[in-house]
Amino acid sequence: MKRTLTALTIALGLSATTAAQAQTTVTFWTWYLSPKFDGYIKDTIAAFEKANPGIKVNWADKQDSMVQDFIASVNLGNAPDVVNLNIDETQKAAQNGFLRAASDLSGPAALNATYYPQSLKNFTSSGKVYAYPWYGWLNEGVLLYNPDLFKKAGLTRAPRTTTELLNDAKIIKDKTGAYAWVPALKDPNTASFLGYFYAEGLPIYGEGGKAAFNSPAHAALLARFVDLYKTGYVPEDAVRREAFQLATELYAQNRVAMIVGGPQALTRIKDTNPGLYASTVVTSAPLGKAGVQTGGSMALVIPTASKNPAAAAKLAAFFTSNAAQLAFAKVVPVVPTTLGAQRSTQFRTTSNDPVAKATALVGASGRYINPGYRAPGNSDDLYKNFNDNIEAALLGTKSAQQALTDAANYWNANMKK
Amino acid sequence: MRIHWRQTLMSYTFLAPALLLLAVFTFYPLLYGAYLGFTEYTGARFAQGLGPKWVGLDNFRTLADDPLFHTALWNSVRYLLVVPVLQLASLAVAVLVNRELPGMTWFRAAYYVPVVTSVSLAAVMFEWIFNREGVLNWMLITLHLSTPQQATGYLNSRTWAFFAVMLVTFWRGFGYYMVLYLAGLQTIPRELDEAAVLDGASPWQRFWRVTVPLMRPTILLCTLLSTIAALRVLEEVLVLTNGGPLNSTYTALMYVYAKAFQGFDFNYGLASAAGLVVAVVALVISAANFRLIRGDTEGA
């Protein structure tokens, strides 16, 4: 009897050890999602673990230090398995060899069946897709405006084209004292002004991938913004601060009449100025001559240093699936990057609530998400140089043409393929 | 002889933990950083698991050819202007609050508050002050020293941004040096001051002839600390101006930070070389400080 019990105990112990060995722990890093979306993330992880009993997810949310922490973890040999990066950082990480290709892990067919072609293109580098596209946003998704300031300015409708927007900028400021809107002149860590060229149908790269944003047409467009800036029709802080942050701050103070952007601006206004939120009018955003939107997206990537790439790929695919993205879009007005989102009834509701209205306007528009330019190799240096040149034009130390030519020359001399 | 050997061993045993910590956290990073300055060590090499590759003086040639580094280094050297102002002001206030008057404890604490204030909070506060519609312009207009048309956004101005950021450094460092000076002042024997009073010396004469000479070791320490801090200023520039406008506030440490820690294109080799150049500048200026202030002490 005693022998039998001993044998049973050993057998149970061994089977427990085997089960423990079969359990894979996947480390998952998100970016700026905690604590606001803890509930959604935890619920999705629980659903994934239930569907994949052999995999346990260890989640951490990273904020300012995401990239540095990622690099440090690779150095220390304990890299995370799934990491949340945006388009630009994914491109940089892929160019430098930090990532495994999602198209190698899940196969191109599975990716093509799940995500919009443009979403996959955003994360493609050297012919391979390096990420599972996650939630996105449109820079010109919607236009929000303050009806009182519009009335004061004598405007009866929102601008529908960039040209109208630029013209309204003068009318609104002259008649109300408030700025019309805050353009993204030089947002840090990117080259946001390139988005305006894309929106007007002007090329960023030319033959052989060389920078080609210094034609007279490019310079003429920049000169229009320079003119508005120099004559006081654009807040001067726009050269120093991120446009979205500045715009939401000034809009809530009735000092900016319009925000061109995504519904996410509305959630901030709801917190800071509920009265203005209630009266805010939501409509379609003005488009440039090309009739295209610019936008950005987050993604889930698998580091080269991940020790569990197969399990990591499963988790990334689960989190970025159509069902999970639609569920996320119910929590916060993000734009899903999955093909299935177009068919969802979720975005066909009518409501007077500004957030619900904006969400309905942009929710199924994930196919348009395109930053308008691909991150060049060595982009940190190149973006810095581009922004310095835009600033030089705005502050009048260079002409618009000279600034763009200097930037293009620098890019072509320093771009790594 | 035997006792002497044992005493030496015991001394080193007591020193060992501190030396070990210094070796791990100071000397090794210092030497490794210096070594990296002569290597190519970029994001691409790092991701492939490749170590640093010796490239001799290549990084220093790159720095010599980079106008942004020249601007950054020049701005850091210009930033040293804050040092004499900061030291004189904190010494003067330390002398004032060293008196046994009602409310002095409160003043000492109040001056120290900026030292423990986070830089992001300070940035928000100084944004309100330096904005075109901010407190500073409001004060100048109210006092009829300026007109609404002359109001400037100080952080957006090529002329003023540098001094505006410097004022934040002054504000943040002032209390720290004041406390050090206060500690130094309290070690000066009262009899010396009393003797000077009996000799008929004026407060001004007592300050220059008694206080300042006896405070020279503290002045040397504070000046050195302040010089090194000014050369490696980063946080206030990063949060207030991000180096702008037109790189007028872009400092050498911002250059090092950008090359070493921004994005996946990082270049540890170039960042380390830039760090080495800043370290050499700091050493030269510190040596000059030593010669100037300690030399005077020896002569005094």
- Domain module count of chain A: 2
Proportion of residues in β-strands of chain B: under 5%
Strand arrangement in the largest pleated sheet of chain B: 1-2
User: Helicity of chain A, in percent?
Assistant: 40-55%
Estimate the helix proportion of chain B, in percent. Answer: over 70%
CATH superfamily of the largest domain in chain A: Periplasmic binding protein-like II
Count of alpha/pi helices of chain B: 15
- Give the SSE order of chain A as H and E letters: HEHEHEHEHHHEEEEHHHHHEHHEEHHHHH
Radius of gyration of chain A: 24 Å
Q: Figure out the total of helices of chain A.
A: 19
What is the rounded distance between the termini of chain B? 42 Å
Q: Unreliable stretches of chain A, pLDDT < 50, 5 or more residues?
A: 14-20
Report the β-strand fraction of chain A as a percent range. Answer: 5-15%
CATH architecture of chain B: Orthogonal Bundle
| Overall body shape of chain B | flat
When the domains of chain B are counted, the total is 1
Helix/strand order of chain B: HEHEHHHHHHHHHHHHH
The overall average pLDDT of chain B, rounded, is: 91
User: What CATH first level of chain B would be assigned?
Assistant: Mainly Alpha
User: Can you name the CATH architecture of the largest domain in chain A?
Assistant: 3-Layer(aba) Sandwich
Residue stretches of chain B low in confidence (pLDDT < 50, at least 5 long) are: none
For this entry, give a set of tags:
heterodimer; A: 417 residues; alpha+beta; D-Maltodextrin-Binding Protein, domain 2; six-stranded mixed beta sheet; three-stranded antiparallel beta sheet; 11 strands; 48% helix; 13% strand; globular; B: 300 residues; mainly alpha; MetI-like fold; two-stranded antiparallel ribbon; 2 strands; flat; MalF_N (chain B); cell membrane (chain B); transport (chain B); transmembrane (chain B); membrane (chain B)
